[in-house]
Amino acid sequence: MQLTITNLTKTYGNGVRALNDVSLTMNAGLFGLLGPNGAGKSSLMRTIATLQEADAGSITFSGPFGDIDVFAQPDALRQRLGYLPQEFGVYPRIAAETLLDHLAVLKGITNGKERKETVSALLHKTNLYNVRSKNLGGYSGGMKQRFGIAQALLANPSLIIVDEPTAGLDPGERNRFLNLLGELGEDRIIILSTHIVEDVQELCRDMAIVNKGTVLFQGHPDAALATVAGRVWRKRVTKAELADLKQNATVISERMSAGDPVVHVLADSQPDDGFRAIEPTLEDVYFMNILGLQKQPS
Ligand code: ADP
Predict the structure, then answer these.
(1) Which of 19, 33, 43 to probe ligand 1 with, by most ligand atoms within 8 A of CB?
(2) Is 41 in the pocket of ligand 1 (CB under 6 A)?
(3) Nearest atom within ligand 1 for CA of residue 86
(4) Considering the entire predicted model, what is its pTM?
């Protein structure tokens, strides 16, 4: 199974170029699409989901079902797609089980017995079975997102798109949601769009970093880490030192720790005695790409 995105470009009416010659290849399993707000992730997700058109480029979805040219055959793609949009609206005064049953009818599961079994299996899978009679309005953010996955799975899709699913979830809910995504199996492509580095680090064997509509990296998270191996240095500094470093070094990130800034700097050799080499994290790679740092001499 493969999703191939080739030279996709999209400029909105207001002149914003949301996708700039985007090419990506995704195979079965979880694919992490990582980028800051405004990077173009939702534009890409909506284009793959056939909810909006691109100006140029193509998308092909290939599998046991043949090759689907997504722009020429949007219905064929939709039949194999489960989509959890960023803003997933639910009807607050209806019980989860009832809504899932309605949605199953809309998806064409008209046989009553089959539908009951499907709905029940999905409620179990998403760990909502015990709260199936509760109105959706009373669900927590995490429960709503898991319900979103249940509805996305209704037609047993080969392609699942989840757009920023963990934003706004508390750590426990986020873990439950990520575990659920991890269990969805290897026989489909799952695209997880997120601005949260840990989401990708924990789950994905393939990933891309995007910013300003452009793909900056695609590959295994380990390959991303290898791009900065041995070049990330850490130091606890004073505020004055920080200002100086910002002028004279390549600062990847700074955060406060016990009242003082801790900086990560990109450099080929130890900047000064106070710096310690560290094992880079995906967050280092992410910031480095987003800030365009690798293009500067270090
Ligand atoms: P992300 O999902 O990574 O936050 P988006 O795809 O939502 O990024 O947005 C990419 C860029 O396109 C942003 O600058 C955003 O303001 C702009 N944009 C998104 N949707 C529209 C739209 N319908 N009309 C005009 N500009 C848009």
Answers:
(1) 43
(2) yes
(3) 2
(4) 0.91
Q: Is the dihedral of CA 227, 214, 157, 58 positive or negative?
A: negative
Ligand 1: atom nearest CA of 46 is: 6
Task: Quick: pLDDT tens for 31-81.
Answer: 999 999 999 999 999 999 999 999 999 999 999 999 999 999 999 999 999
Which of 10, 17, 42, 162 is the best mutation target for the ligand 1 pocket, counting ligand atoms within 8 Å of the beta carbon and taking the most?
Answer: 42
Residue nearest to atom 22 of ligand 1 (CA): 12
Q: 85 versus 139: which is more confidently predicted? A: 139
The two tokens of residue 104 are 């199953």
The C-alpha torsion from 58 through 64 and 65 to 66, rounded to 10°, is 50
User: Residue for token digits 């037609």?
Assistant: 155
Select from 291, 286, 292 the least CA-distant residue to 34.
Answer: 286
Q: How far apart are CA 243 and CA 247, in angstroms?
A: 7
Task: List domains and CATH numbers for the chain.
Answer: 2-218 (3.40.50.300), 230-279 (no CATH)
**Residues of the chain with pLDDT > 70: what percent?**
98
- Residues 240-297 pLDDT 10s: 999 999 999 999 999 998 888 999 999 999 999 999 999 999 999 999 999 988 644 4
Evaluate: CB of 32 within 6 angstroms of ligand 1: no
